[in-house]
Design brief:
By secondary structure, the chain is mainly β. The chain is about 0% helix and about 20% strand. It is elongated, with a radius of gyration of 19 Å.
Length: about 270
């Protein structure tokens, strides 16, 4: 058995703060106008699982009418020897070549204004997962058997300092060099080893699993969970409902609230 999986795509990245970019080359979106008498739903999406029995895509993060699509899974083979193609997501997963059954696929597409596509497979290496700021590299770009490097994420100063999020996961390699994870929380691919997981609360993609000759099945890295950050004037007060994990800080004349887990409703006064 021999299979070197593609990296997972990053979660979709959407931004409306300070004219900074959204993912996939998109411009900043229009800010939301909120009603003080209304409640708004917030959901922090989970990262996809990296199990060898079924690597999955990430789940969506939501604030009110805004949805960021979960990252797409990378291509690989399950321990039932069933090929699993790369999936479209906020950013797309990387492709892989499966030696046992001869199947292969190119990287999957990202979502417009959220993220880029994953890279294509090469013999003995997987493509890098797409990131919010850059497409995943094709496997073999840096030399025979090299896993594709993942696409990088996008930086934001919504919390008052620059933080990069939504990097893709690196493509795997059987024996040479695995692909690096994208800046912004992406996990590295495995060189004849399991892939590394994406960083929590970045939406980073998980790295693909690398398998040499006669190796046992290995797991790809899990995707990093998402994050929702809301910035608003400091004369307003937020109420966070049950089911959400969030914290509020002040930056200049604004407050910002960061949600790191859960789903529930919020309101302002």
């Amino acid at each position: 058995y021999r299979d070197n999986a593609g990296g997972g795509g990053a979660g979709g990245y959407r931004n409306s703060y300070n004219s900074e970019s959204s993912g996939g080359g998109g411009s900043a979106e229009s800010s939301l106008s909120l009603d003080l008498s209304s409640s708004y739903t917030v959901t922090v999406g989970a990262g996809g699982s990296g199990s060898s029995s079924g690597v999955t895509s990430g789940s969506n993060s939501v604030f009110s009418t805004i949805t960021s699509i979960g990252g797409g899974r990378g291509s690989g083979v399950l321990n039932s020897n069933t090929d699993q193609n790369a999936a479209t997501g906020g950013s797309g997963g990387g492709g892989a070549y499966v030696w046992d059954n001869g199947s292969s696929d190119s990287g999957a597409a990202g979502t417009t204004n959220q993220g880029y596509s994953g890279g294509s497979y090469n013999v003995d290496s997987g493509g890098g997962g797409g990131g919010a700021g850059q497409a995943g590299e094709n496997g073999g770009t840096d030399g025979g058997g090299y896993g594709g490097d993942a696409g990088n994420g996008v930086a934001s100063t919504i919390t008052g300092s620059s933080v990069t999020r939504a990097g893709g996961g690196g493509g795997a390699s059987g024996f040479t060099v695995a692909g690096t994870g994208g800046t912004g929380g992406g996990g590295a691919g495995g060189k004849d080893a399991a892939g590394s997981s994406g960083t929590a609360n970045t939406g980073g993609g998980g790295g693909g699993a690398g398998n040499g000759y006669n190796s046992s099945f290995r797991s790809g890295g899990s995707g990093g969970s998402g994050i929702v950050i809301i910035r608003y004037p400091n004369d307003k007060t937020i109420t966070i409902g049950a089911g959400l994990t969030g914290s509020t800080s002040t930056d200049g004349s604004d407050k910002y609230t960061t949600f790191t887990a859960g789903t529930g409703t919020i309101s302002f006064s």
